[in-house]
Amino acid sequence: MSKPDERNVDPIEEMTRVATNFLDLNLWGFKESYRSAKSGNLIYDSDWCRVNIIWGGWDYGSGNNISIYYGRLHAPNEDTTMIWNSEECRCWHGFDDALHFLDKQTPVDAAKLDYSHPVTDPFYDDEFLSKFSRRQPEWLAQIHSTIWRSYDKRFFELFDLGRPDLWQDYRHFLKEVYDIKGRRPYIKPPLDKVC
């Protein structure tokens, strides 16, 4: 019997399967709030923040791919930027800088560490990667699930609209990190303009 072609999966069904089986969304109070087959988005909301699972499509080397981003509760469903306090800013975020901030790294150390972090580095070891050959969505979900367990609600609270002081500290941290890393003028809005 032949194996089904991985390119023929329904993106929303596949992302729902991964979210349900690997992310413990119910444990953290997340409920599905938006889905779009057209854009390949599946969004879950909690009292703290939003989680956006985005379909990346099929890649010859790694099979199907997804991305996972975090937004504050005002983040729009379809757009990656929005106008906030009269300025265009990014409203969906990765985890790398957030982890360095929560670890109280200095901006200098965070800039040096970049994408490296003790919680996520083991997932890039060859032995671990081989377990998830051609199963990038499960691999990525395991990373996020591990972050959630390691940081508990502190991770989600960073994005909480009810914590403007914490968010302002994070914005200041990002500004200092990108003052060190440098900015690319063609990236608009700049990576440290977040809301």
Give your account of this protein's structure:
It is a single chain. This protein is α+β, with helices and mostly antiparallel strands. It has one domain (6-181). It is built from 7 helices and 7 strands. The strands form 2 sheets. The protein has a 5-stranded antiparallel sheet, with helices on one face. Strands 5-6 form a two-stranded antiparallel ribbon. A hairpin with a 3-residue loop joins strand 3 (50-59) and strand 4 (63-71). Helix 1 runs parallel beside helix 5 and helix 3 (107-113) packs across helix 7. The longest helix is centred in the last third of the chain and has 18 residues, at 164-181. The radius of gyration is 17 Å and the shape is globular. The termini are far apart.
Structural Rg: 17 Å
The SSE order reads HEEEEEEEHHHHHH
* Average residue-wise pLDDT: 92
- Low-pLDDT runs: none
- The number of distinct structural domains comes to 1
Secondary structural class: alpha+beta
Major sheet attributes: 5 strands, antiparallel
Q: Which of globular, elongated, flat, extended, rod-shaped describes the shape?
A: globular
Individual helix count: 7
The proportion of residues in beta strands is 15-25%
Query: What helical percentage do the residues reach?
Result: 25-40%
Largest beta sheet: strand ordering: 1-2-3-4-7
- Distance, first to last CA: 51 Å
User: What's the total number of strands?
Assistant: 7
